[in-house]
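Notes continue from the previous slide.

Worked example: a multi-chain complex. Inputs as given:
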Amino acid sequence: EDQVTQSPEALRLQEGESSSLNCSYTVSGLRGLFWYRQDPGKGPEFLFTLYSAGEEKEKERLKATLTKKESFLHITAPKPEDSATYLCAVPYFSGGYNKLIFGAGTRLAVHP
Amino acid sequence: NAGVTQTPKFQVLKTGQSMTLQCAQDMNHEYMSWYRQDPGMGLRLIHYSVGAGITDQGEVPNGYNVSRSTTEDFPLRLLSAAPSQTSVYFCASSRTSVEEQYFGPGTRLTVT
């Protein structure tokens, strides 16, 4: 069964304390992996797309990496404004079309 | 570019009432989708469309209808609202089914 699992569910960091979020997936024939950021009361905001194992993408304090079975979102020296829920999603093929399956997300809180 | 717009932002319905959630995009995207987001469950796909005139069911389609008469618009209809449909609804669009999706701001629906 196609599945996307994110861990931890919630993470509390002090400002400047680096850490990583995990997204593991069981989807045959990976067609990409997406990371999103979601602020309370808003829609998810696209961050990165990764297509192949070994690929890395960076944006400010965030770096996303991809292996054959999981992806990591590394947060270096986070600031309070990085507090949000981070979602990952993977396309899967069903019924003749590709659809996205989302993980439940990691709620990140960064405290000054 | 307005991106993906959704109306209304908030809605309260009584059990058995019907309503339509509106979604529009101005990016000329072929792929559009509707998700619901419930606490602890992540985003779940309700219906999607790969182009004007073509729609299909997602993971949780029961109680919802969609149609796609134009590239820009993808309304979601609740036929007879039930308390189990209390949720936050997001519309999203992308160029193709395997590219990153862009989300609207969401509609918070409460059914009493």
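Summary box: The interface with chain B takes residues 31-32, 34, 36, 41-46, 49, 87, 89, 91, 95-105 of chain A (CB under 8 Å). The CA atoms of residues 93 and 99 of chain A lie 6 Å apart.
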